[in-house]
Structure formats: C-alpha cells, structure tokens
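hey so u asked for the seq, here:
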Amino acid sequence: MKKQLQYLLEKRAQLFVSKDERNVEEAVERKQRLFEKRGAEIVRCSINSQIVSKHVMETGGKLAYLAHYQFLIKHGSKMYVEEQVEERRAYFERGELVKDEKIIVSEEMVPPRLEREMLVDERISYKYDRAKAVRYAETWWNSYNPAFPRFEVDCTNFVSQCLYAGGAPMTGYPNRAKGWWCKNNNWSYSWAVAHSFRWYLSGARVGLQAVEVSSPEQLMAGDVICYDFEGDGRFNHSTIVVAKDANGMPLVNAHTTNSRMRYWSYEDSTAYTPNIRYKFFHIIDRK
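ran it, structure tokens below
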C-alpha cells in the first residue's frame, strides 16, 4: 500500500510542473491557472505522505494520510517555497489502489449574534508586534500549540493565536458573545469562528482593533484576510499575511488545510467559487 501511494504522489507532483494538459487533475489545473494569472511558475514540486490510520480487510483496505506539498515558486526575480498539507484517503482492492480523495472538513458552527463592546471610554494600551505574529504563524502553521484548544475547523483559532502572540490584548471574558478571548479552556466565538471573527474586527472599539481596507495590496505582514467562499454573507475562513510576492500581493499562512506562503486569493482551493467575497483588515499597531 505504502509503495503504491508513494508512486501516486510522485506522479501527481510531476503534473504540477508538466506542460502536458492531458489527464491533469482538477486541483492541479486550478493551481496552474492561478500561477499563470500571477505570472509565476512552479519550478519543482514534491509530495510526502504521513500515514494517520490504516484499515485492512480481506479483499482491500484504506489509508488515511496527510499529503505534504512543497512547491518551489519562481516569481519575477524572487524564489520562495509554498507549502500545503491535505488530509486524504486512499482505497485499495486486491492490492491495487483504486481511489484517492481529499477529506472534506465539515463547516464550523454558526454562532449567535455578537454583542458590541459598549465601553468606548475604556482604554487598553497595546503595541502590536507584527514580526512576533509572523514568527508564530511560521512556527505553528503545520502543528498545534498545546497551550490552546484545537478545532477540526481551526483557521480562526490559529489566526487568533498569531495576533495574541503579536501582543493583541484579550477582552470580554467570560462572555462568549463579547470581545475576543481564550482563557481557562474556554473561548469567545470571535476567537474561533470565522464569521464572528470577521464581525468582531469590523466593530471592535476596545482591545484588539482593525481598520478595513479596500484592496489586498494595502495589507502588511501580520494583517488578516477573511473569506466568504460562497458570497452568501457567511464568512467561513481566516488567514494571516506573512509576506508579499513580487507584485506586492499578500502570501498567507492558515490552518484547517494547513498552508504556508499561499497566494491570498485561494483561487486554487476546492472551496473557491466565483461569488467569493473578501474582507481585508489592517490591524491597528498601537493603542
């Protein structure tokens, strides 16, 4: 099983750098289309696997595994490495690999309406250290800090941890519908749920605060992007900016599908739709 899986992954890795358009997987085509649009090129791709579970039956079996993609990207005069980790499942019958698919993570909960912070005269001084937030994002992009809870849909929890590492202050404890906090094995909706986080950033007047900007070029390392993939008003993903590409566009880190130095637009994602909407938040550096 392991040998067949590795052979499959080697073939898939070759597709990302191949110019042959025959038998190209949809995920590969989406990635290639996005890079062509950016004027960037995938120079090399490698995919390593880590077996999570194995179930063997009399006539077949299945493997749950993590596929770790590493893309060497050439963009203008710059070279950088983009990484992504997918949860996948491979099925075997009579010793032959017959199916391989990405595991789709179920959507997160829809929280109740957030309470707006009313204490507008309260002052919480802080200095947001973008370098520390980015270091945290680079350290934990593909692992989980045991000091915090972990969720199946973990993107917003991860971004919140990055902001906190940068010095953003928690407020609102212990009201889960108020503020932004994670304490005593509990957390606010805004800490861990993408939709709540987006609305918190839009309206917070105490503690961590942000300014919405109109375009991704205006963002800096340590800023945040929120995603409404279906364009239905419900935001379902969050990322943190860690760098800029040769065109000055954001590269982001994220959890759930763990990603590093990924292009901000997510046009290569299976969740992407033409109706996607974004919110770009510049974190206020000092209050």
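The first helix runs from residue 2 to 17. The longest strand covers residues 40-56.
lmk if thats what u needed
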